[in-house]
Amino acid sequence: MVHAIRIHEHGGPEVLRWEEVEVGEPGPGQVRLRQTAVGLNYIDTYHRSGVYKLPSFPAVIGMEGAGVIEAVGPGVTTLKVGERVAYAANPMGAYAEARLMPEDRLVPLPEWIDDRQAAGMMLQGMTAQFLLRSCYVVQPGDTILVQAAAGGVGLLLCQWAKHLGATVIGTVSTDEKAELAKAHGCDHPIVYTRENFVARVKDITNGQGVPVVYDGVGRTTFMDGLDCLRPRGLMVLFGAASGPVPPLDLQVLAAKGSLYVTRPTLFVYTAKHEDLMASAADLFGAVRAGGVEILVRQTYPLREAAEAHRALESRQTTGSTVLLP
Description:
Blueprint: E1 2-7, E2 17-21, E3 30-40, H1 42-49, E4 59-60, E5 64-72, E6 84-88, E7 98-102, E8 107-108, H2 115-119, H3 122-135, E9 143-146, H4 152-163, E10 167-172, H5 175-183, E11 188-191, H6 197-204, E12 210-215, H7 222-226, E13 229-237, H8 251-255, E14 260-262, H9 266-269, H10 273-288, E15 296-301, H11 305-313, E16 320-324
Helix pairs in contact: 3-4, 3-10
């Protein structure tokens, strides 16, 4: 029997339960995937806690994984049994030993990417890809600000932006995380627990501010982040690790320099199959070229997902975390 982590109600990590589940055979356009690695992402904590409400219970959470195709359903033409694939997409349900997935949401893996690396790179890596190449197209010579620069997405943003020729400013909570961010492309790590990051950004940019701020933290950084932008700059709010941003009077954007704000999601930017494949190809290319290194810095048995959630939410993790079925 297949096991999965399920929740029967919203709550803390304690609601994550290791249970037997029925997977069944793939239907039209589906494959059955035996999972070898599952990615841990902050969005998983939102689904668990109720920040993002789930429509029904019990539910298997998780948005990212890698594995081997065990069976294909009617009409599947691009994938075959035995093929290695990965994904970062709906439908939710990655915290499982095996699952069904739509054919058009799976990305075949090159042989040089192993399963753990794939499970640690798809959601965060494609997030970094659309943030840097679509939301705001980073150019050589740009100076950008990355909040939580030592986190999973943060480290990828630092590396990739540096690879693109940008100067990277990043906020971190400790000296250890500052060293980690600096080792991965962050030119100016700012330890926000003892430094005013707005003042430091203005100092680094000679009072000009930056054209774009990438913020996955939310409540505690958003308003100060606006003050780091130059006139007509763009705030890219892609997460809420510290909680959701309170309602904003849009006149604030006018007063601070005709600013722009966007709240994008990977799932919109990769909704079309061709966009998903292009994003994954760009990510794989950046990794192959050495511009981006995928750091799987923590692994947990899938059955211990609750411990992984506690570590993530208490900011004990850096880089990517992978759960092993």
